[in-house]
Automatic annotation (TrEMBL):
It comes from Zostera marina (Eelgrass). GO terms for molecular function: ATP binding; calcium ion binding; polysaccharide binding; protein serine/threonine kinase activity. GO terms for biological process: cell surface receptor signaling pathway. This is Putative Kinase. The lineage of its organism: Eukaryota, Viridiplantae, Streptophyta, Embryophyta, Tracheophyta. PROSITE patterns: EGF_2, EGF_CA, PROTEIN_KINASE_ATP, PROTEIN_KINASE_DOM, PROTEIN_KINASE_ST.
Length: 737
């Protein structure tokens, strides 16, 4: 073996004078630079590891036919057809995997499986390759590890009609030929397939050999003749592109990420030359070039470029021989006068343009603000028609100038919230009140409608647990909303703490639940028009410095008259909080908000998000379904938030859990009303206050429950409800045991 290598290297050294000489900068000194017609530049090298960056870049140069003209480079037993230093690619010729099937015996005659492993090398299969399959009953797959369809990175299937004459040429659409993409970063593969000639009724005259191969995109032209080729030794030898990369490049080079995403390939920038893999790129001195001269007069070389000019007193093109000519004196004087007059005229022109531009821009802004105000005011008036009111009587109108001053022209340092539809800024109004100012992100009609809707609803709403709308600005395409500033974040922020340590105690959670319910009862029934919030969630409940709840974000809300029972509306809301009945029917009712409120109660009890999943839960898919199953088995305490369980009375937790379950019924008619929920929570809180007066456990239980009917018809039922004289809903005593 050693003697063969010695003779091989001796042959290359003897033939070295026959190879064209490359620039010294392209290869290691003393190493050949070409093999046949292919340039072999560093980091590649021929024959010896000293000629290459490392063993992976060593190229073999073989004379396959015994003639000097037939010297060809090889890598990993594959012929190299090109090496591109500018794109970091090397192209090899590779054969296909093939399997031939005997139609008569319905068995495999023979097969040849092709694989290639580049692991541990700087080469990757390029995504410019395609995984291709030909055959009439073939399922082929490309895998990284072994000849098995499990773990495949690409799969392709090819079938044929009854006769090959109807198979189209020049296309691989699954009829006779199939192609698919190659995954990025692939270094090793096995090409294998399953032929199902023994399953499909394929006529004997059709193809009985299947082939699978990698090929550079656009290099394989499919023809039905390949389907009729039943010789297993038939060679295809199609080009396959490999990406190569290095860990780092020399100085003064472009470090371009390789197409595989691993490492770099290097190139010299414009104005530099050399091989960036072997040494730093060198500046080209364009002024000293004898051939391909760049400048014929005053030339000044710069790093990576050069300056070229005519001598003083001359004009023309200095980059052409004889291109500079002496400037006549008369022309010089005329040019000087023209330059001076042009300078004066240019100064006056620029000043006039700037003046009129600023004036035009200011007038344009005025017209735009007036147009926006008129359009938004008209829309707001239409919202107020049913209320027989003037919008200006309910909402203070701020000018855009006032809002810009309050927010320091919407300075990014004043951003306190950034959601899907709007950005909220902290602003200081002219009356020294701190406000939250909401600016729409998207200038679309749907956003304008939501902001107008919120103005119309909130300007008529006064409740201590509903965020106050201080006013609005109609001078923008989508109105700006000005709210009271609530400083303590959202309920979601306080419940879903990243480290799992929720900040809210049980008393605070119970009080917040009561306050939120009270605010919803108000918007449902405290005016001539019923308002459905339609997007109740913990992220839309703000908390002030005393942890008092403030209901916010009425953009999706809908109102209806008192004699209506429901509204048919486009489904809108947040996943996890959306009423299933409303989602299916599009009918929005009071019970839609009840369901969303039940989800918020569930968050308060568990500290978990409604879309939470847990691998330890059985087959239940999310928090709500898991909770309902535990509740039915009287085991809901298994998922209560541990941070507040010890400070809460079990009877209170049980009552609230049952109330939550009632709110989460799939059918709206089985859910309690908002007033029933408010009354129930009020009784729990009153019982807590009386408990502080040292009443007995039996007296407290009586306050939390009601007398069981003698027949016990509601006992133990999750969905049963009973209404007392005040209209409150209370779970039965069995829920408190």
């Amino acid at each position: 073996m050693g003697s063969i290598v010695f003779l091989h290297l001796l042959m290359i050294s003897l033939l070295l004078p026959w190879f064209p000489k490359a620039a010294v900068s392209e290869v290691v000194e003393g190493c050949p630079s070409t093999c046949g017609e292919i340039n072999i530049n560093y980091p590649f090298g021929i024959g010896e590891s000293r000629c290459a960056m490392n063993e992976s870049y060593v190229i073999e140069c073989n004379n396959t036919l015994g003639y000097i003209s037939q010297w060809k480079p090889y890598y990993s037993d594959s012929e190299i057809t090109s090496i591109s230093m500018t794109t970091g690619e090397i192209t090899l010729l590779r054969d296909s995997s093939v399997r031939c099937f005997n139609y008569s015996t319905r068995t495999v005659i023979d097969d040849r499986i092709v694989s290639m492993d580049l692991s541990g090398t700087p080469f990757f299969f390029s995504t410019r390759n395609k995984f291709m399959v030909t055959g009439c009953a073939t399922l082929a797959f490309l895998t990284k590890n072994s000849s098995t369809i499990k773990g495949s990175t690409a799969i392709c299937s090819s079938v044929c009609p009854e006769t090959l004459e109807t198979v189209p040429n020049d296309t691989c659409n699954g009829i006779g030929c199939c192609e698919t993409n190659v995954a990025k970063g692939l270094q090793r593969f096995f090409l294998d397939f399953d032929s199902y000639y023994n399953i499909l009724d394929i006529e004997e005259k059709n193809s009985t050999c299947s082939r699978a191969f990698l090929a550079e995109e656009g290099t394989f032209q499919f023809n039905t003749s390949i389907l009729r080729e039943n010789d297993i030794d038939f060679k295809m030898n199609l080009p396959v592109v490999l990406d190569f990369a290095v860990d780092k490049c020399a100085n003064d080079t472009y470090n371009k990420p390789s197409a595989s995403g691993v490492g770099f390939f290097c190139s010299c920038p414009s104005g530099f030359q050399g091989n960036p893999y072997i040494h730093d790129c060198q500046d080209i001195d364009e002024c000293s070039l004898k051939e391909d001269k760049k400048c014929y007069y005053n030339c000044y070389n710069k790093r990576g470029s050069f300056d070229c000019s005519c001598p003083r007193g001359m004009e023309g093109n200095p980059k052409e021989e004889g291109g500079c000519r002496t400037i006549p004196l008369s022309k010089w004087l005329i040019g000087l006068a023209a330059s001076l007059s042009s300078g004066v005229f240019l100064t006056l022109s620029i000043g006039s343009i700037v003046f009129f531009y600023k004036r035009s821009k200011k007038n344009k802004m005025k017209r735009l603000k007036l147009k926006c105000f008129q359009e938004n005011y008209q829309l707001l008036q239409q919202k107020y028609i049913s209320f027989y009111e003037d919008p200006t009587e309910r909402a203070k109108m701020y000018t855009l100038k006032e809002i810009q001053k309050a927010t320091d022209h919407f300075d990014s340092s004043r951003i306190i919230g950034d959601g899907g539809h709007g950005i909220v800024y902290n602003g200081l109004l002219s009356d020294q009140r701190v406000a939250a100012i909401k600016l729409s992100k998207v200038k679309e009609e749907v956003d304008r409608d939501e902001f107008i809707n919120e103005i119309a609803l909130l300007s008529r709403t006064y409740h201590r647990n509903v965020v106050e709308l201080l006013g609005c600005c109609l001078e923008t395409e989508v109105p700006l909303l000005v709210y009271e500033f609530i400083s303590n974040g959202t309920l979601s922020d306080h419940i879903h703490v990243p480290d799992g340590s929720a900040k809210l105690c049980w008393d605070d959670r119970l009080r917040i639940a009561t306050e939120v319910t009270s605010s919803i009862v108000y918007i449902h029934s405290a005016s001539s028009n019923t308002i459905f919030h339609r997007d109740l969630k913990s992220a839309n409940i703000l908390l002030d410095e005393k942890l008092s709840a403030k209901l916010s974000d009425f953009g999706a809300s809908k109102s209806m008259t008192m004699d209506q029972t429901h509204i048919t509306a486009t489904v809108q809301g947040t996943v996890g909080y959306l009423d299933p009945e409303y989602y299916q029917s599009g009918k929005l009712t009071e019970k839609s908000d009840v369901y969303s409120l039940g989800v918020i109660f569930l968050e308060l009890l568990t500290g978990l998000k409604p879309t939470s999943f847990n691998d330890q839960w059985p087959e239940e898919r999310n928090l709500i379904s898991h909770f309902m199953i535990l509740l039915k088995a009287n085991q809901a305490d298994q998922i209560f938030d541990s941070s507040m369980v010890n400070e809460a009375e079990k009877e209170e937790l049980d009552v609230v859990a049952r109330l939550t379950g009632e709110c989460l019924h799939l059918k709206g008619e089985e859910r309690p009303t908002m007033k029933e929920i408010e009354s129930t929570l009020g009784r729990i809180r009153r019982s807590k206050n009386k408990q502080k007066g040292k009443i007995t456990r039996e007296e407290r239980t009586h306050l939390l429950s009601f007398e069981i009917r003698s027949n016990g018809e509601h006992s133990g039922s999750i969905s049963s409800r009973k209404q007392n004289s005040s209209g409150s809903f209370l779970p039965t005593q069995s829920f408190l045991r």
